[in-house]
Specification:
Blueprint lengths: L1 H16 L1 H15 L11 E8 L2 E8 L6 H19 L4 H7 L6 H6 L5 E7 L2 E7 L3 H18 L3 E3 L1
Parallel strand pairs: 1-5
Antiparallel strand pairs: 1-2, 2-4, 3-4
Helix pairs in contact: 1-2
Length: 159
């Protein structure tokens, strides 16, 4: 029994001190929990983040050349809803998926009135454009995008 406890403690310690193991577990957690927040299939889609001088653009598009009409409709529905929520300062869905302490999230919530947030449908999905003249909010958007890139792992990419 003590041998099992010692091995378990060693495994837990290895996971805590190994950034690679911890990052992987966060990515697996986000991928596995994504269906609770997003109606589309993350395995059939990709999140694309592009940081800009005044904020950034987040796109969600279907993977590959197969234009899955159902996934595209679900992406558009979700992003349009999220853009409206974000404009009101409600970042509850990202907090539910990534945690309330996600980098940039508190600043975005507090400063939502100073952020222009616009949804746009795309042929293969949709996008949300975030822009602000407040450098602190631009930095918060960049931090938030960076955290999403890291935590979505293979389900995301930057441009």
């Amino acid at each position: 029994m003590i041998d099992k406890i010692t091995r378990l403690a060693g495994l837990v310690l290895a996971l805590l001190v190994s950034p690679a193991a911890w990052s992987q577990s966060i990515q697996e957690h986000v991928h596995g929990k994504s269906h609770e927040v997003m109606p589309f299939d993350v395995a059939k889609t990709v999140h694309v983040f592009r940081m800009t001088e005044d904020g950034g653009v987040q796109r969600v598009v279907v993977r590959g050349k197969n234009r899955d009409a159902r996934q595209i409709a679900l992406i558009r529905q979700h992003l349009e809803h999220e853009a409206m929520q974000f404009q009101m300062g409600n970042f509850g869905d990202p907090a539910q998926l990534h945690g309330a302490l996600m980098p940039g999230l508190a600043e975005l919530h507090a400063g939502a009135a100073a952020i222009k947030i616009a949804y746009k449908p795309l042929p293969d999905g949709g996008e949300i454009d975030f822009s602000s003249s407040d450098i602190k909010l631009v930095t918060a958007i960049h931090r938030w995008f960076g955290a999403q890139l890291s935590e979505h792992g293979a389900d995301a990419r930057s441009e």
